[in-house]
Amino acid sequence: MTAKTLISHPFDMIVFGGRGDLARRKLIPALYHLDRERRLPDDGRIIAVSRGQMEKADFLRLMHDECVVHSPGDAIHGPFDEAAWERFAGRLHYISLDATDAASYRDLVAALQGRADVVRAFYLATAPDLFGPIAAHLKSLGLVTPESRLVLEKPLGKDLATAQAINAAVAAAFTEPQTYRIDHYLGKETVQNLMVLRFANALFEPLWNRTHIDHVQISVAETVGVGGRWTYYNESGALRDMVQNHLLQLVCLAAMEPPSTLDADMIRDEKLKVLRALHPIGVEDVAQSTVRGQYRAGTVEGNGVPGYLEETDSGAASNTETFVAIRIAIDNWRWAGVPFYVRTGKRLPARSSEIVVQFKTPPHSPYPASAGIIHPNKLVMRLQPDEGIRLVMLNKGRGPGELKLRQTALDLSFNETFGGRSPDAYERLLLDVIRGRPALFMRVDELEAAWQWIDRIREGWAETGLTPKPYAAGSWGPNAAIALIERDGRTWHEDD
Ligand code: BG6
């Protein structure tokens, strides 16, 4: 295979939580695939760091098996490539270390000796209460070089105060430009394409405002439950787990003003303005503008599944939401009067994420009622599965008989159009870390503005006692979510 965008930066990527779930399912398989595609420089090492003792051979065997499962190959690359794995394994190292104990960083210090001039990316895939202590140890041990980066996984706190504490702690060791806060949704192809669609085409931007757009819907539906992650999730809930980060980032990209360049701060400045313009939802209007749900037993994709409180690792009672729907207003000229309806949930009928921009109905119809309803145009951006863009419009049905208006779509499937394989979001983001491109990472002020808005909703829920409504696994959430949008005379988009 020929070299693609081989990057020239030699690097050391040090993954804390190097045997954890994220490293096994996402990070190591993504790095393996990048290497398989020859996108990594020859001089690039990956040092997994974790508390437990483990022989290197056992670690390599474990990661091999994870890569077989999570990066199994595809039609373009063929099956899992053992030779590529062998080459990749040469980059992998394992160091056992207790992240809270500076003395136990000895082996890491030794491993990094003499490589102060290469890119050094510390990837913290650990619990967030370790972010501050790890950053402090790295600094006190002299491991933070000018070429260092600190990558932080979510959850970045559980509210504004805890997020600020984490940010302050890491800022004592790493500068803001060295700090990369991951939101893996920003690495998804369609999400990046949203900016291209808006800002590289003349067609949409003139229509992208309150004069022409009726409303926007953003749905991130998952079929999985929270089994296996119950303890984390029960502290978090859908609002913190999905809305604070992924969904608000999608709102930002859909609603932001065009940046004048693709400079990371230009983009982040524009996103920040959207976050600051989100109309606060608090105690007065949480009941009208938000819906919480929690799944009960049901059937998803033909399989019977337990309810949230019956998951094997669950507690007996909980008021944590596994579904949330919110009607968001954005207080600026472009979006005044244009609601953004967002919803996300576990154990919904299908894994499907999309942004739907619904335009206004034409102001006048010359067609008789017998021609059919004038449905408004919709632009549907599918994030997953089958990434693509669909423009729904009306056309005349064929034939010489009575004129009938038919809803039809211009449908662009990225798979069919571009062929190849859609890269995993982490592949893109890990390369960006190594290349030093922070545009797809959250800046501190964005993170804090998002928490501020979210905290107010949570306070509203607490003060009004708004608890989650039950919904059957395999349904689209509680009926109240349907009522939320229908109150405004609208409906959730269904694929036609
Ligand atoms: C994570 C959440 O950030 O995103 C998970 O913690 C969720 O609860 C996941 O399942 C969804 O990501 P994706 O890429 O599968 O849509």
From TrEMBL:
Presence of the UniProt keyword Ligase in the record: no
Binding site for substrate: 184, 188, 222, 241, 346
Pathway assignment: Carbohydrate degradation; pentose phosphate pathway; D-ribulose 5-phosphate from D-glucose 6-phosphate (oxidative stage): step 1/3
UniProtKB keywords: Carbohydrate metabolism, Glucose metabolism, NADP, Oxidoreductase
Binding residue positions for NADP(+): 51, 154
Class in the EC hierarchy, top level: oxidoreductase
Domain Glucose-6-phosphate dehydrogenase C-terminal: 195-493
Enzyme Commission code: 1.1.1.49
Protein name: Glucose-6-phosphate 1-dehydrogenase
Source organism of this protein record: Dongia mobilis
Gene that specifies this protein: zwf
